[in-house]
Amino acid sequence: MTHHKAAAALAATLLAVAVPAAAADYTLNVNTALAVEDPLYKGLESFRDGVAEATDGAVEIRLFPNSQLGPDEDVLEQARAGAPVAVVVDGGRLAVFQNEFGVLGAPYLASGYDGMRRVVTSDRFEEWVEKLREASGHQVLSFNWWQGERHLLTQKPIEGPADLSGLRMRTPGAPVWVETISAMGATPTPMPWGEVYSALQQNVIDAAEAQLPAVVGARLDEVITDITKTGHINLITGLVTSAAWFDSLPEDFQRALREEALEAGDVASYGTRDALAAIEADLEAKGVNVVEIDTTPFREATASVYDELGYGALRDELQAIAAGE
């Protein structure tokens, strides 16, 4: 009897302080194009566990690797409609809703993680987060999910922009990516990441560009011969969900989600940074030629992209933030 009384008292207490008594009152399904082997996925696992702990199990995060819930764009649309979904997505795909986000994917904005982290945790960036909410109904949880610098993945050696002439190169469909690949000399060919392996295998495309962990995750070493380290786009991504769903959460859970997302983004990003050398060695062991080149010709070729997309003034401001000025 005492046990029942204690349980009843506990239940009353929980109700009194308005803490949801049921386990997992809220569930968030997180979609990513990446494979479970990707260092970034470890960050998502850390996010899942951190949120469970911070909310005493009231918010459950479910992870869906390899785009199990569909292409990123589809999941973004579901989030817009208020579905309890989130997606790991780059700024280029958000630029259709809020233009400034596109600059995050612009060529040679910053090198490494630390500079990009300063940009996406700045007050300036938080202004964009608010604008995005109003423009499209998306809520950014954090944007410090660094996946590494993107390089050229080809079936022949590349020494400069001229070698890309006529090559059909897969890229995400956002304007900033398309303009960058075009400026580098290739013919941009947008398609979902999940289709790249077969497209290369069947010569539908001649090349792709991606960060090293994604190359391994998609087993592209089987269908390319060369990786040229251009580092043309420093891939920073964010965890983006539905603003309507987010607003339905108690305030302390909203806070917990954003704090845990920022912390997990660091786990993902530093994990990626620490894994890059081993991943590169692994690719070389599999027979891929990984080549360092002078990136100056590519930097010069892509410099115009900022102005073409109206990001000229932003570039200077963000490069100053990235440099810690």
UniProtKB/TrEMBL annotation:
The identity of this protein, by name, is C4-dicarboxylate ABC transporter
Q: Which domain of life is it from?
A: Bacteria
Q: Tell me what organism the protein belongs to.
A: Salinarimonas ramus
Where would one find the signal peptide in this protein? 1-23
What the entry lists under InterPro entries is as follows: DctP_fam, TRAP_DctP_sf
| BP-aspect Gene Ontology terms | transmembrane transport
Supply the alphabetized keyword list.
Signal
Query: From which lineage does this chain's organism come?
Result: Bacteria, Pseudomonadati, Pseudomonadota, Alphaproteobacteria, Hyphomicrobiales
- Which residues are listed as membrane-spanning? none
Tell me if Signal is a UniProt keyword of this record. yes
